Amino acid sequence: MTDAPYSIKVVKYFIVASLVWAFIGMLIGVILAAQLYWPSLNFDSEYFQFGRLRPLHTSGVIYGFVVNILMGTSLYIAQRSCQCALYNRSLAWMVFWGWQLILLLAVISLPLGYTTSKEYAELEWPIDILIVVVWVLYAVLFFGTLAQRTVKHIFVANWFYAAFIIVIAMIFVVNNLELPAYFMKSYSVYAGAQDAIVQWWWGHNAVGFLLTAGVIGMNYYFIPKAAERPIYSYRLSIIHFWGLVGFYTWAGTHHLIYSSVPVWVQNIGIVMSLILWLPSWGGAFNSAMTLLQNKTKLKNDYILLFFFSAIIYYCLATFEGPLLAIRWFNMIAHNSEWVIGHVHSGALGWVGMSGIAVFYWFIPRLWNKEQLWSQRLIKWHFWLAHAGILLYAVALWIAGIGEGYMWLAQSDNGQLIYSFVEAMNFKAPWLFLRFVGGALFVLGLVLMAFNLYKTLRSPVILVAKEA
Questions:
Q1: Is the full-model pTM beyond 0.85?
Q2: Helices 215-227 and 156-175, interaxial angle, to 10°?
Q3: Burial class of residue 159 (count of CB atoms within 10 Å of its CB; 0-12, 13-18, 19+)
Q4: How far apart are CA 312 and CA 304, in angstroms?
Q5: CA 415 to CA 438: how far, in whole Å?
Q6: Residues annotated as binding site?
Q7: Binding site for Cu cation, residues?
Q8: How far apart are CA 274 and CA 130, in angstroms?
Q9: Residue 1 reports pLDDT greater than 60
Q10: pLDDT digits (tens, 9 = 90+) for 415-429
Q11: Binding-site residue ranges for heme b
């Protein structure tokens, strides 16, 4: 693979940064899981306690792992599918280093306790301003590249990338409108129910357009490439796009069921969540059928199996999400470990497996390597990842459902049957299994990093085969 006329070096940097942040973010997650079972691991430190590390975990995974891989792959796919060079190479490097600076500031500020306390939006106002500046530069770079394309058609992956760039920009700015009190401290311009509605408009759509739409765009390019088959139905991919864009942004208020938010606003979130079943599963069917067009390769190629597993977990997560939006299920699950299990079945199963598959397929080709150093290690990684996700998710489903029932259980005179401590004791062994599951998943990442390192160090060169 030659660099000319495409800008490949900056793509390499984004992909390596994504891999590094995936390990850092998920390792912190394992530490947090250990702290929940062994509270003494907080070490009585204000800097190493759960409340300080948890936003660092989510920021590392979402903004480190996911945003880096989406930025890198989007710039690569835009060049390849538009058959043109990047709009501006210097701008690409400004985006890369600007984003890494943001992540470094998060690593410093969050453990020190500088936080807005808003989910997935904890960073304080000076860093927010820097995020907006870098994001605008990224948008200029991406859309500028599309504008100078040498082909008339815009490939569907670029549609999803465009949606993720535009929607994230819009909802990030609106949710982070705040009044600075002093350096590294601000207060939201919203209050009460208003603040909750805007926050979950952001929170749910950060999941919807970073972890869903962006990753879907990435997979619409790499799944056909890895399977060596065209997209099963290009028309269905367009329906998938408009279905997500049309309904996803309305679903955030399902986080606010049984709250002081008006019931009709809650109902919009419930209805839109249920409607999302259709485009989500339609898109999953499209990707699965793309892989199944090459059944022979699917049976033996663990990269394709990672992609296929990601699709299965996507179906599971997009079935469970609308289910939890139904009032009866929400009554049991709300604020319980069930929701955490749901989030991680999607984050580890859908996003994690997709990212792993792209790392395995894309990194060797970026460095002109013919094949992975060890097929046995990728096989071990595949089963470790599955074992980790299943242990993690199933443990928290059991813990959450039991926890929810214990919170609601009442005696004949209306008293609560179980105390808070009894509910904690019930879920303790399941929290231990959660830790084990997370540790297995991170162990798989270590195997992947070693395998990829040995692959890049190998002398074997890829001959006449580009990504």
A1: yes
A2: 160
A3: buried
A4: 12
A5: 37
A6: 57, 204, 254-255, 342, 344
A7: 204, 254-255
A8: 36
A9: no
A10: 999 999 999 999 999
A11: 57, 342, 344
